[in-house]
Amino acid sequence: MYRALGLFALALAGACGRETGTEPDTWPAGTAVVVGGEVIGVEEVDTTADALAALKPSYTRSMLRRQALTHVLFTRAVGRIGCGRERAAARAAATAWSAGDEGAAPPRERRGTWNELGLDLWLAVRALEPGTWSEVCEGAGFFFLVRLLERDGAAPAVREGFVLEVVEFPWRSDRVGLPLAVFEERLVIVDPAFRKVVPERWKYPMEEVGE
To answer: What integer pLDDT is reported at residue 17 of this predicted model?
Structure first.
C-alpha cells in the first residue's frame, strides 16, 4: 500500500523545488516531531488539540494530540517541504490583501459544518465574531483569510453550521495529494512522549523512509 503512495510523492516533488540536506544533531526546544525536515512543536500540537476537544469532548489528551497530528499538522508540514520561496510569496500576497490590496480574487462563500468546511477553515472560523475577518491563517499548501457571516449555534459543536467568506492564496497546485504524500516523508519523534501518540499506521512506515 505505502509503496503505491510514491506516485503521489513524485507529483509533489515537481510542485516546488525540493531541498535536500542532512538532519541536524539537535532540534529546537519544544519540538514534538519532525516530518520531512519540517518541525512540529508541542505548543502547536496542543493548541490544535485544545480546539479539537470541542468536536471530540470524550477524547483523552493523548487522543486529541493524535488527531491534531494526523488530521491537521502532518499534512500542513508536508505542504511546506521544498516550497520556501513559493510559500513566502503566498504569505506576502495574503498579508497585502488583508491590508487592502484588491489584486487578489474576490472572497467566495462557503457553508457547512466542520466536516463540510474542513478542519483548516473550521479551526480559523470557530472563535470569530460575526462580520470579522481572521488573521492570515495557514492550511495545507495555502494561506487564507476567512470572515464569519453567520453561525447557527447548534449543539454539539460537530453539528454547528457556518456561513463564511474565504479568500485563498495557494502555493501548491497539488494539495489533494498531500494527505497521502505524508507517508513518503521521514518521521523523527523528538519528544519521547509522542512515541505513544503517533499511531503505528503512520509511525512505522514513516520512520523507515530513507533508511
So the answer is: 64
Residue 24 · residue 185 · CB < 8 Å: no
Distance of alpha carbon 154 from alpha carbon 176, whole angstroms? 30
Task: Find, among 11, 14, 16, the residue nearest to 171 by Cα.
Answer: 16
Segments in the chain below pLDDT 50: 1-14, 20-21
Q: Where are the domains of the chain?
A: 1-13+28-83+174-211, 84-171
Distance CA 106, CA 25 (A): 45
What does the pLDDT read at residue 9?
A: 41
